[in-house]
Amino acid sequence: MEGESRGPGSSPIRGGAVSEDDPKSTRPPSDPGKRLASPPHQSKEETSESNSGSGLERSARGRKRGTEPMVLPTRDSAGSGSDSSAYSSPLREPKAPVVPLCTNEDGTVSYVFTDDDAAVDKYYDDWEKYEAKMARRKLLLTSGRSSVTERYTPKATEAVITYAKSVLTLSSCLDGKVIRCTGIVVEVDAIKNSAVILTSAWIICTKKPLDDWTNKEYDPKAKVNVHMLNGSILGCQLMHFSKHYEIALFEFEFTGSIQLQTLPLESNVEFDQDVFLLARDKDLNLIYKRDKVQLVDPYEHQHNHYQFVNGPIPECGTGGALLDVTGKVTGMLFCTLPLVAFIPSSLILKCSKMWKTFGQLARPHLSLKLGTLGFLGIPRVEFMSRNFSISSGLIVGEISAKCNAEELGIRAGDVILSCQNERVSSIIQLEDVLLSIGEKHLEKSNDLSSKVDVEIGVFHVRKRVENVINLRVDLSDRLEVFHSDDEDAKAEGSKGEQAPVTAPDEAKP
Known about the structure:
Elements: E1 47-50, E2 98-103, E3 108-113, H1 117-137, H2 160-164, E4 167-174, E5 177-189, E6 194-200, E7 205-207, E8 217-218, E9 224-227, E10 233-241, E11 247-253, E12 274-280, E13 286-292, E14 307-309, E15 321-323, E16 329-334, E17 340-344, H3 345-358, E18 363-364, E19 368-372, H4 378-388, E20 394-399, H5 404-407, E21 415-419, E22 422-423, H6 427-444, E23 451-460, E24 465-476, H7 486-490
Antiparallel strand pairs: 1-3, 2-3, 4-5, 4-9, 5-6, 6-11, 7-8, 9-10, 10-11, 12-13, 12-15, 14-17, 15-16, 16-17, 18-24, 19-20, 20-21, 21-22, 21-23, 23-24
């Protein structure tokens, strides 16, 4: 990963500005994606950061998907090069030793480096160690990103007009701002003249950071309307919503003159499968695209359970339907960059079942960011299969600070092979297993304050050995929050509130 110099006026801490009056001003590294190589040990500099943000915020909008030139490792270089039985130490990006200077008129806070020269020197020394370890990680067999596969196969679309009758628009007004999402009619009660519509929890989200792993704020009492295709606007009531999966169910009543039909949910979706995107724009016009499920993993700032199509769709298309060629809903869409994300129907169905049965969700929090081994490319997968008899699994990209997985020796680059004795080759398979664990717990108890045991099979890529580990993790219906360093982990509140964390630009071991 090469260093990158920043021009005048840029800030080492995102959102700030460096004074050009000081010709000796230098810019230390700020994040793994954009930093100076070998920063000099010299002057202080002023930076600014929004006090409404989440620390050293990193933007992922400018990143591009792609693959770096691949060098296939030899068998001897498949691990870390060390035969030590000890686990490698967790890696944390060093935090700049800065102190607040003043609060600006626009509400931002300006910072300067501390006068403690020893702390500044230690920061640069720690950064050199961080750079060296990041370079070593790039040599791991499981390093590398998945690539985008874009192929299109035309399919018959005669039934699209029929399907579109079940795709509607929802709107809300939060803090004076109108929010629009698409919704999918999934249930109709002709006797009560009521219907249930599936959409995104974004419709009631008052604060949505770029990083999916940080706290969001919702207003469950917000007034939400359904815009019918005949021009009428109907109020609806929130039934359930999930902060982690960001799905929501609303119920509304309609008159007998309105004809509604449902779109069934199909739990099976395959990578590279032909699909149709159905949503609506702000003027209720139909958005229709033919696409394929992409063979890519989520970015580090995105939820594990996201899958992707090429898209694009406008932001108001969030909550739209992803259909297979038979007209069944295989997922719900989210407007994300650079690719449109969707949550598979298998997870939606499991959530819906738990809501109907128990009135709540329960999901274990493993505190791991994951990728798919099969997306590394055939040469690397063949190498793993030939030398270690491993051809599928989930690659650990990053581990939340102070979590049980970290304490038990799981490190970035390791491969999750199984969960609860079930082999897992995709992240969605793992999510299905985790929700099943939560469902079984709710069958015995409604207490979500306890912890549960999750047994996972792990291949430690540095030591080149397999191991079965029993994780003791939290069971919760809340958002799974990721702690990027030890201080974030310690700052978690006693009542379940999580401290804000930064949006990582690169996975860190």
